[in-house]
Amino acid sequence: MENKNWIYAENLADSGCVGFCKAIEIAKPVKSAEVTATALGIYNLYINGKKVGDALFKPGWTSYNYRLQYQRYDITNYLKSGENEICFLCAPGWAVGYLGKGNINHTYAEHISLTADVKITYNDDSALELVTNPTWDTVSDQVVSSEFYHGETQDLSVAPMIVGKAKADAVPDTRLIPDEGADVTEHERLKPLKLIITPKGERVIDFGQNLAGYVEIRVKGNRKDRVTISHAEVLDRDGNFYTKNLELARCTNTYILSGNDDLLKPKFTFQGYRYIRLDEYPFEEVDLSRFTSVAVYSDMERTGSFSCGNEKVNRLYSNSIWGQRSNFIDVPTDCPQRDERCGWTGDVLAFAKTAAIHYDVSAVLRKWLHDLILEQKSDGAIYGVVPSVNERGMRVSTAWGDVITVAPWEMYLAYGDAELLEECYPAMLKWISYIRHSGDEEYLWLGGNHYGDWLAYDAILSPEHREGATQTDLIASAYFAHSVELAVRAGRVLKKDTKDLELLHQNIRKKFREYFIKDGLPTIYPKYDALSVNRPVKGLTQTSISLVLRFHLYEGEIEREKLTDKLLELIRENDGKMNTGFVGTPHILHALSENGRVRTAYDLFLSEKNPSWLFSVDRGATTIWEHWDSIKEDGSFWNDCKNSFNHYSYGCVFDWVYTWVLGIRPMEDAPAYQRFTLAPHPDERLGHAEGSIKTRYGTISVSWRYENGRINYSFTIPEGSSAEVVIPGDEKRMYSPGSYTIAGKCL
Fold first, then answer.
1. Closest-CA residue to 414 (of 157, 615, 694, 204)
2. If you placed Cys at 128, which of 120, 245, 349, 569 could pair as Cys (CB 3.0 to 4.6 Å)?
3. Rounded to two decimals, what is the model's pTM?
C-alpha cells in the first residue's frame, strides 16, 4: 500500500468518532473486490452497514513514528447489485487518544486520519478503483466518544448523518507495512455469578473472573433511556465497588437506548474488570441473563496445559493464563485496567518463556520486538516502554532493556526462530555497547537510574521508592554478563565470530567478582546507589544470590554450595518465605532447583504466607497481582494507586513448573523441542501432575502420579522429536517418538 491519499474530518473533538463514507454503484457482476486501508486512530470497516471481519482495534499499535500496519479485506461477498456504501468508522485509539501516565493525548497524531483504496474487478475484467479523497463524506455516528482509558458513549437513539466532506490530510512521515501481528478478537464469554447490593446500596454484578474485554448487554427500554456501567477489578473490604486503583482512567460506558431491542457493547475500547456497577439502569429488576462478559485478546493458539492434585495451584495456573490473555492485546502490556496499559519491557523479560509455553506468541512478540528495534536509540539505549509513549521520566534500566537479548533467545528456544534472532542480533550488540559506555567502568554497569528488584519485599516500599534492597549496580552488572552470554549463544547459532564477545564475558565475570563477591558471597560496592538514603541497600539478598547462581558468576563447586546454603539461610531467616521482586522472582526457584534444592523450591511455590503465589489465591484472586499483597491480610489494599490486580509478571512461575515439576526443557542445539530433556521432579504435596506443550513437531505430554507407594510416569514424544529422559532414581536414557509408561520408586 502506498502512503498517500490521507483524509481527516475538521473540528473533531478529542474523543470524537467519525465515519468516512463513500457510495458506489455496482452495475455489473463482480469477480473480486478488495479494500486496503489503515488509519492514525483505530477503525472498523463496514460495507452496507455490515462489519467486515471480526478483528478489533485495527490497524493495531505499532511505533507509529516509524511504521504503521495496513490491512487487506476481501469484500466480494459483501457487495450487492446497485448502490453500496463503504464506510470506515474511526476512533482515537492509541495514536490520537489518551495514552500513558498523566492522561496525555495526541501521543502520535493530532487528529484521526484515514487512507484507503478500493479495487473492484468485474467478470468482464474491467475494474473500478476508488481512493480516499475530499469527495468522501464525513458522517456522525452513534459512537459519540471513545477512549481506551475512559470508556465509550453511544447514542443509539439517533441515526448516523452526513456532516460534511473529508479534507485532504498531510501524508504522515511513517512507513506502511502489512499486518504482522495477531488480530485482537473476542474469545471467552462468561455469564454473571451474582448480583450484589453493596453496603452503599449500589447494584454490582460479579462475573467471577477478572479479565480484559467488555460487557455485552441485551436490553429493550424506552427511547432515550440511559444505561451507564462502571468497571472494577475488586470490592473493598467493606464490600463496596472500588475504582481508586484505576487512577485517572474512568472506565465507564454509557448507552442511550433506541427504544428497540438493543445490543450494547463498545466498539473501540476495552476494560479490565471482574465487577460492573449499574450507575444508570432503567429497570428495577436486573435480569442477569442479559449480561455477558466478553474476553478480548490477541488471537493466539493455546499451546500449554497443566493440572495437578492441588486445586490452589490449579487456580494459580488459571490466574497466570488469564493474566496473559488480559495483557496480550496486540502489545504485551503491564496491566489492562488503569491509565497505563503499556508495553513495559521488564514484564516481557520476566514472562517471555512462560508466555511461549501458555500460547503461541510468535506473531505478537515478533511484531513487538520489531518495534523495540526501531525505537532503540543510536547509542543502543532501550527505554522501559515499547511502543514509546512518553519518554519524560522513563528510565533506561537493567532487566528492562535486557529484554532485547532475553526475548529473542526464548523465541528461538520455543520456536526455532533463527530469522528473528538474526533480526535482533544487531540490537543485542548495540545494547551491550550502550552498557559498556554507560559508566566509568568498561566491564560493569555502575550508576544509572534503574528500576532495581522492583516491588521486592526486602526494602521499605512506598509509591515513590519500590526498587527493593538489592544493589542495582550488582543487578545491572550481573545482567550485563547474562546479556553478553546470550549474545554469544545467539552468535554461535547464527555462525558469527563471537571471540570478542566471549572475551568480554570473561572480563565482566572477572570484574564482577572483584567488585561484588567477597569470600564467595555477594557484597556491596560502596558507591552510587549503595549510598541511597531512600532505601536500605544490601549486597547479600535472595535476589543477588539467585542472579549469581543462575548467571554462573561463581567459581567452583565449593563456592556454588556456599551460595546455595546462604540462600537457604536467608529464606529460613525470612520465616521460610522469599522476598524477591520483578528481578529476583523469575530466578529464585530455578536457582534452588538447579543446585539440588528442589524441595525448598516446592516449599516456596506452595507457601501461602505473604509473600507467595498462593497468598493471592487464598484471597480470591483470579489473575496475577502486581504486588504480592495487593490485598493485605486485613482486607485493606497495598496502596490506593499503582495497584493492579491483573499483572502477568509473577505468573512467570509456570516457567519453573514446566521445567521442574513436569521436567520439559528444550535443548539449545535442537530448538523448538526437536530434542528435549524430560526430567520431572514429583512432590507428594501435589499428588499428581500432568501437562503438555504443543511444539512445532507435535505435542509433548507428561504426567506423574503417586499410587500405592510408587510414582507412575507417562509421557509422549511427538514424531520428529527425541527426548533425553531422566526419571528420579533411574538412569538417563534416550527415547524416540512414542508413548511410554514407567513405574518409579518414591525417593
1. 694
2. 120
3. 0.97
